[in-house]
Structure formats: structure tokens, C-alpha cells
Write a structure and sequence with these properties.
The structure is a homodimer of 295-residue chains. With 295 residues, chain A is of the alpha+beta class. In chain A, 28% of the residues lie in helices and 27% in strands. Chain A is built from seven helices and 13 strands. In chain A, the strands form three sheets. Chain A has a seven-stranded mixed beta sheet with strand order 8-10-7-11-9-12-13, sandwiched between helices.
């Protein structure tokens, strides 16, 4: 019967070389040499069977990729480069070694696209559904990290792509906007940024709360994904509602006083703390309805 | 009903100041300033309800403490200082905010003892048992990390305390041997080290495999914890067997050619790859029987 140590042995055979890594996975801790000029950014994000994916439908490779991409998208939100990652899995009893390897390869495939080294992790099995947790280390690499807290009244509200209906499949297969984040951050004119994981209304709320500002959205400018229209045909919730409140789009939402090509202005930050939307019928309040885990 | 964001808001109010932390938890990633003279050590370890603890018996504070201490013990094994940690929890639906806070405070209490800052994490809820994952960042702080791979034939095998029977309670309440690890590592005479989490027989096997050596244990020198005797009265498995194979002692096992005070020699590393034990009846092979997660 395959066990934890067979899996660890296989993982060690898979490791990519990285100039950052002095001692890779296999010891109690991995040892990295951190460049003195780089700030170290660090975060963690988990995916749970039945909540963030459905193991009856999604392949282990797709699950692994999503777990990694959520963390890479956090790097995009801060405009840093992914440097290293660690993977932790709680595998249902009876999981085959092949399934565990596919999970790992899904993570590795996503990480390799950004030269992000998988340097360690933890694996265990239990008689419950799959959980997969990725820790990400990013490096500032010459660009000051963009936080949620710098938006100013008058800044334009930008979004990098169409929103809504990610549940139809895009939530498993999105592209972390790292290059785009780096290129717009290089302008030096980005005041605040976040990736849309909880939904536009909720993630905009996060920026407003951290920055001490309010926001005015232009309903007709919000780019709506065709998936939101498809969902509307099924649930009769308007495509705009889906674009406002659905989670896991993983587009970037940011504040800038400047005009920027290749991205879309959907409103302005304003003084105060309320979020409103300008529609044909006038101003309406926007309440956060995006994703929140209830305890 | 309390949700994820109430919990996150509370966590942010709890954060300790650290010179390392430029931007604490609350953004997409935390931002740290890493000292150029420090190597960065990183690892992750999870605890699962029913496997590493029993939520019907153990308090959330004790569960949080164990999750953190397992990671702090990995720092001890490498002789580094804990610097920062991230906490990820999958909470059963219906978990109260108070319970979640106690989990966090258990982790924080353990981390604070070593000035280790909790800088981020992820929390979600689901209709399954509790999982808690801690990522640890350690810094070398003037001492070259000790790996598993440097043991040489002739080195003494040392252990820092009595072994066996941790299941009676010590597995929830052990002390990470960080100061001791640092003080012995400072001698410059430690060739390899590990913390005993999987059991003496299995963790010694790890050192032997990584170092390309074998080992000879002296059965009469292995320090046996009184808990191993207590277990023997219940299960009729000898105290020595418990000391050899039980997991989660979290004492340090290390290789050194020198005599070191305050620790216990239990054998010698030898050429070859076999692990044997010298008993009154002569040499007997020691097979790893410690803890391994079966997939």
C-alpha cells in the first residue's frame, strides 16, 4: 500500500531547480537564500472539496491548478513575483498515489509558468474530503507592493476583465494576472489593488474600508462576462447582479488617477464610505453580497 | 451570524508588533523585510481532527497550540529561530466565533513565546471536521541550519529527552526544543538533526537515509518516558517498543562526534545502511514502525 513517504520521495524527484533554493523539500524545513533587495510577501489560501471544487467533477490536476492559481492571483494583487510555494494536502483515505501525483502536478504546472518553485509541504490522509492548502512566497523584485489602502477620492476604479458567472467553469481555470499587474504597477500610478475573489461588491468594499473612501460604480461600464448571461437564463438573476456579486473571477480591481490602456474604468472612488451605482434609474446603493464563509 | 470577516477583523486586532513586518495580515499578502544576513527557512504542518487531535476531548486552545508547536519544533530541528507564521483553518459549519478565537489564541500563545509573529492566514468553513495548518518562516540568525544529511560513521546518536507514550497527553503539550537546539548547534559539532515526530525508529531511518549511514542503538541507553510504562500496563507492548516506535515526542535526535552535556547518547552511527540495536540478547534489527499516513 502506498504511503506518505512514497509520495514525498516522488515529489522530491519532481523538484525544479531554483537559484533561490539552497535546500529543497525533504528536510524538516526548506532553506532559501532571500535577496536583500527584495521584500518578502507571504500568504496562504486553501481549497476545500464541496466548497471550492467538487472532486466528483473536477480532475485532481484542475484542483491542484486552482489551489496554486488562487495564490498566484494574490501575488498579482500585490504586484509581486511568485518565488516559492508549499503545498499541504489532507487526502481522503484510499486516495491512490496517482491521484496524489496529479494534484501535485496541477499545482506544479501552474507554478512553473511563473518560475515559482514548490519547496515543501505536508501530506496526510483522513476519512474525510480533500483539502488542499498552498502557501506562497512572493518577492517585490523592484516594484513596491500595491496594497488595498491607498485609493483616493477621484481615483478611477479599474477592472482587468469581464465579471460574473465564474461558477460555470472559469473559477477552476483562470489566469493569474501577474504580468499585467506588474506592468501597470510599474507606472507608479496605482494607489490600491485587489484580486476579485469574493466578488466585485465585496472586494471593492475591502478597498474602500482600507482606504477610507467610498465608491461610485457606473452600471453600464461594468464588463459582464458571457457566463453571467448564461446563468441569467437559468436563474433569472440579472447578468449585472452576477457581475457585481459572483466570486472567483480573479480579475484585478484597482485605483489609479491616470488613464491606463488595456483595462476598463467602471467608476470613481469618492469621499465618504458608501458604495453606490449610477444606473438609468439613478443612484442605487451597492451592498456586498459576495462570498463570505459563515462559521 | 458571525462570518469570516468578523473573525479576520478580530485577528487583526490581536497582531503583535514585529520589526520584520512591514504590512501585517489584512491585505492579499503580508509584506516582510527579510534581513540579508539571514537564510529563510520555510515549512508547513497540519493537524486534522481524529488524526492529530480529538475535538471532542481537546480544547481549541490546546489544538491551536499543538499546530503551532509542531512547526516550532521543525525550527528546532533545523536550529533556526521562528520569525513569522501563517494559520489556515477549515472550521466545521456552526463553529462559534469564540471557538475560532480560542484556536487562534492557542497558536498565538505558542508563537509569542518565541517572538514569532502571526502574519496571515486563511479561514473557511465546511460541513466536515476541523483542520488547522500552520506555515512557519524561520531565520538562520547566525547559525548554519542543521540538516538530516550530515551524520558520519562514528558519530554519537543523541536524544534530548525520554521517549514513548506521548499519546497519553504529551503529544498535545510538548515544548519545542528551540533554545536547546540553538545552544548545541552553536558548538559547530552537530552533523545532522531531526525532531522525533514520526517515532525514533522512523526518524532515525530518515537521518540514515539522508546521510548514507547505518546506526547501532544501545537498548539500555534509550531514555523511556514514564508514559511508555503506563501504556505497557494497558497494552502489554513493552516500554522500549513504545520508546522506539511511538510518534510525537518532539525531542531532538542528532548526530555529533563530540561529548555534549545535558543530552543522552543512545548509540552510534555506523557504515552501511542498516539500523540495529544492541540488547542483552545480542544484536537485533530495528525496523521503522513509526507513524506513516497511509493514502
Amino acid at each position: 500500500m502506498p504511503g506518505e513517504f512514497d509520495f514525498i520521495k516522488w515529489i522530491r524527484s519532481q523538484q525544479s531547480k531554483s537559484p533561490l533554493v539552497q535546500l529543497p523539500a525533504g528536510d524538516d524545513l526548506a532553506v532559501l537564500k532571500w535577496d536583500a533587495s527584495d521584500l518578502l510577501l507571504v500568504g496562504v489560501d486553501q481549497v476545500l472539496d464541496g466548497t471550492h471544487f467538487d472532486s466528483a467533477i473536477h480532475s485532481p490536476c484542475a484542483i491542484g491548478r486552482k489551489a496554486m492559481n488562487r495564490n498566484l492571483s494574490d501575488c498579482a494583487a500585490m504586484a509581486c513575483l511568485p518565488a516559492a510555494a508549499l503545498a499541504t494536502s489532507a487526502l481522503p483515505k484510499g486516495t491512490s498515489l496517482d491521484y496524489a501525483k496529479e494534484l501535485y502536478l496541477g499545482m506544479k504546472e501552474a507554478a512553473d509558468l511563473f518560475d515559482c518553485a514548490l519547496v515543501g509541504g505536508d501530506t496526510a490522509s483522513w476519512p474525510h474530503p480533500l483539502t488542499l492548502t498552498v502557501t506562497i512566497l512572493g518577492r517585490s523584485a523592484g516594484i513596491q507592493p500595491i496594497t488595498r489602502s491607498g485609493a483616493k477620492p477621484g481615483d478611477f476604479i479599474y477592472v482587468t476583465g469581464p465579471l460574473g458567472g465564474s461558477i460555470l467553469g472559469r473559477h477552476m481555470n483562470f489566469e493569474p494576472r501577474i504580468q499585467l499587474a506588474r506592468s501597470i504597477a510599474k507606472t507608479g500610478d496605482i494607489h490600491a489593488m485587489i484580486d476579485i475573489s469574493d466578488g466585485l461588491s465585496r472586494d471593492l468594499r475591502h478597498i474602500c474600508d482600507e482606504s477610507g473612501v467610498g465608491a461610485l460604480l457606473y452600471s453600464e461600464e461594468i464588463p459582464i462576462h458571457r457566463d453571467a448571461f448564461e446563468l441569467f437564463r437559468r436563474d433569472h438573476i440579472s447578468p449585472l447582479e452576477h457581475a457585481l456579486h459572483d466570486g472567483e473571477d480573479h480579475e484585478l480591481l484597482f485605483a489609479s488617477p491616470s488613464g491606463l490602456s488595456g483595462t476598463k474604468v467602471i467608476g470613481r472612488f469618492v469621499a465618504g464610505d458608501s458604495i453606490q451605482m449610477l444606473t438609468k434609474e439613478g443612484l442605487v446603493p451597492v451592498d456586498p453580497k459576495g462570498w463570505e464563509h459563515q462559521l
